[in-house]
Amino acid sequence: MTTLKDKTESAAPQARVRRKSELPTAIGFIALGLALLVLAPAVLSDFRLALLGRFVCYAIVAVGIGLAWGRGGMLTLGQGVFFGLGAYVMAMHLKLADAGADGVPDFMKLYGSGEVPGWWEPFRSPIVTVVAIVAVPALVAFGLGAAIFRRRVRGAYFAILSQALAAAFAILLVGQQATIGGTNGLNGFKSFFGFNLYDPVNKRMLFYIASATLLLMVLVVWQLYRSRYGELLIAVRDQEERVRFLGYDPANVKIVAYVVAAAMAGIAGALFVPIVGIISPASVGVVPSIAFLIGVAIGGRSTLFGPVVGAIAVAWAQTSLSESFPSFWTYFQGAMFVLVVAFLPRGFAGVGALLDRRKEKTA
After folding, report:
1. Are the C-beta atoms of 123 and 89 separated by less than 8 Å?
2. Each residue of 259-280: pLDDT tens digit?
3. What's the pTM value of the predicted model, to 2 decimals?
């Protein structure tokens, strides 16, 4: 008969093994925090720091993609939609705040009727705006996920649908010149919740906010990976029919990951707006959605820090190389993606495991 003492003694080694396996993750989390919050502000100029802040926003999107694609097997080619929803919600609030109480944004006087549409008015409230930044992308993702996953659409079909959604969303935005700026988008923001965006101190503050948000999102995903839900998500990715046979609904498991990834993309878009100073259809269509995915693939989609490092590295390389070789960067980006998919399916984060397997074969 198994006693409580026996159970406690058998659980102790398992707990020690788990703590030991989590130590590298904790070290990586601390290293990432020090790099973003201490090292980067100390060595980078204000311009480069603002540039890194933009890349951090991309990394927040990548963390969500890592959850949905790396652990859930959902090839999300439409994250630009949720990124754009969060960004436009924030941009609408900033334009209304700059216009003053009951004021009209400048572009509406030029292109529109000179009156603020009724659906803009709720975003005068900072509280409504903050809630909507998370809720709007999450609700849209929930509706889409329920419609898609409950019909057992997956694989390439899901990827095509999500990409088509991004294309349709960008086209829709282009046609709304009078209400959301059309092709030009929304820009020219002066303040961020009362802080002057032209003040270098406030620009640094935005970088710290974005970096802290990224760390928080990594922590959230880490907790999901360690939870029973994380194990169930992997099971759905690898053996969906077996999970259904065991009494779980794979659609519900996928919807949760899809909604969380969408909410993260919306938060990233909202932070992107005051850091960069503009949001337009060019930032939310098919090309940006694919760019998000490339960073995740190169960094390592199934790891915790791979999407973060990959997204920042690819964006930084794009900026650096495009300054010297404006017409060459896109070929380099495409070649890198093809090489990683062909030879390193786990991204650069999987190089160590690949070398270990080769050593075992040669031994």
Report:
1. yes
2. 999 999 999 999 999 999 999 9
3. 0.90
